[in-house]
Amino acid sequence: MDPLTIAVLSASMITGLGAAGWAGLRAWNGWLELKRFELSQTVGDRNLPPATGRIEMADLRERVRKLEAIAAGIDI
Question: Which segments of 1-76 are extended strands (E)?
Fold first, then answer.
């Protein structure tokens, strides 16, 4: 191979590795920002009920489902 071909291939590889590294760092930065956002937000700020409220709602739904089954005469 002649030196020009080797130089072009080397430059292409270096450019490709640089672009891949840059994309990887951008992805890493985005992931860190996401985790930083998750840690800084409280449950109330995300417009979600507290976990205990969700658990209580699930329990109430289960009780209602059982009562409806009893009322319909179905054994669970």
Answer: none
Nearest to 51 by CA among 59, 1, 24: 59
Distance CA(16)–CA(6), nearest Å, equals 15
Q: Which two tokens stand for residue 19?
A: 């672009």
Four-CA torsion 52, 54, 58, 60, nearest 10 degrees: 70
d(CA 30, CA 25): 9
Tokens linked to 52: 């205990």
- What pLDDT, in 10s, does the model give residues 18-75? 999 999 999 999 999 998 888 877 545 556 556 677 788 888 899 999 888 888 887 6
Query: Is this prediction's pTM over 0.70?
Result: no
